[in-house]
Structures are given as C-alpha cells and as structure tokens.
Amino acid sequence: MQRMSTQILLYEEMNALSARMAEAARANDWESLSRLERSVAALRDTLPGNDDSLSDAELQHKTLLIQRILDDDAEIRRHTEPWMEHLCRFLGDGARRRQAEPACNI
To answer: Tens of pLDDT along 24-43?
Structure first.
C-alpha cells in the first residue's frame, strides 16, 4: 500500500474536526465550535501551497475530503447564522437605544 502524503493526512484531520464542528453547532455548543475552528485554522495554515506531488488517487481523495468539509461548513452555517442574526438584531437594538437616550433625557 502506498504511503499517504502529509497533505492528505492534514485534510483527513481537518475533515474529522469539521465533522465535530457540525456536531457542536447542532448542539449549540459554541465554545467547542470555536475551539475546533481554531484547530482547523491551525491545520489549514500548515497546508502546502501546491499538490504537485499527489497521485491521481490522492487528488481524488483530497477532492472528496474538501467536499465533506464544505458540506460540514454548510451544516454549521445552518445552525450559526440564525443565532448570529438574532445577536446582530439584539446588539443593533441596544445601539439604537443608546443613541436615542440622550434625546429622551432632554
């Protein structure tokens, strides 16, 4: 069996972490999601800039892993975007109240 490249191993680990991120998002576990996101970013930053040394089979596997990561990202967004919209409305309402307070205290 051919030895798997370091790049593929990094994508494998990122894929495993992104699956755990999707689980954390479904559970509304924002702390775990944030921690896992930092881990994925650290791995991503170590990826080599090219994949010239990958075989055709490794390139196909890399493509599959990236698609899985993107699928997990879509799942994460399905759970985080409504929460972020709510938070933005909440913070926006607070900012408008603070801006209006001086005018109300005349």
So the answer is: 999 999 999 999 999 999 99
Residue with tokens 């881990």: 39
Which structure tokens are listed for 70?
């993107």
> What confidence tens digit (pLDDT) does each residue in 80-98 have?
988 888 878 877 776 655 6
Contact 7, 50 (CB under 8 A): no
Whether the model pTM is above 0.85: no
Contact 11, 70 (CB under 8 A): no
Q: Token match 């972020």: residue?
A: 84
Is 65:14 a contact under the CB 8 Å cutoff? yes
On whether residue 28 sits in a domain, the answer given is: yes
Specify the number of domains making up the chain: 1
